[in-house]
């Protein structure tokens, strides 16, 4: 056997692992959107509506149902459904690659919780390039028709055309800084909590990779709760920046200052209830979907 053969085999194996992480993350993301979108819509409307528009999450849902019917709770779902595969695929791929990078730098096969959190934070950097424009389109579709406002967009094509005509790529990527401010710490907590919970649920002498689906669902749900426990304030600012007319805010700090001045510090936690209600089931579905995909890939292989 030549010396080149082991390196070729290693490269092929690494590529296969990356592809599996990419596909698994994408399918897991679709599951998360289908389960969690009504909660996300409620959260976004609470975050962006003028003070006094709603009395709470239940009032948001009630008004959506009265105005738009049952399908109204899925308003704005097309952008995240179209974008969720690349978003989650890039996130899971970047997390897997970041773990390998940190492992190589530390020359350790077992990463600490802090190192896992660092890998999670790094995973948010490339995924923000996909997440920010998808979230911008989603938010604009979710908030239109809120209160007595007109419905400007008739679908994804309309909202994308509006964003680009408003200010080119700068408009399309509005809120990228706030998106990273949310997803960096959020992803750190997300992946670290998932790994720690899996380890805690693993019986002595067993491997976390052998956990049953019930444990995977639990770990995924805990990961979602951990993420959104940190992510709400930057998520509020992201939603406001992305929903507001051009030049309303000069950046995330200006948005924070104006939000606090107008509505008080408590405004930074608007939508906390729906976000936490969504966190466990949506993220349990994410990891369940990703693990099921990897399992099916193993059968096919």
TrEMBL record:
Membrane topology summary: Multi-pass membrane protein
Solcar repeats: 16-101, 111-200, 211-296
Keywords: Membrane, Mitochondrion, Repeat, Transmembrane, Transmembrane helix, Transport
Family: Belongs to the mitochondrial carrier (TC 2.A.29) family.
GO biological process, one term: carnitine transmembrane transport
A single GO cellular-component term on record: mitochondrial membrane
InterPro entries: MCP_dom_sf, MCP_transmembrane, Mitochondrial_Carrier
Protein name: Carnitine acyl carnitine carrier
Pfam name, any one: Mito_carr
Subcellular localization, as worded in the UniProt entry: Mitochondrion membrane
Main location per the UniProt record: mitochondrion
A Gene Ontology molecular function term of the record: O-acyl-L-carnitine transmembrane transporter activity
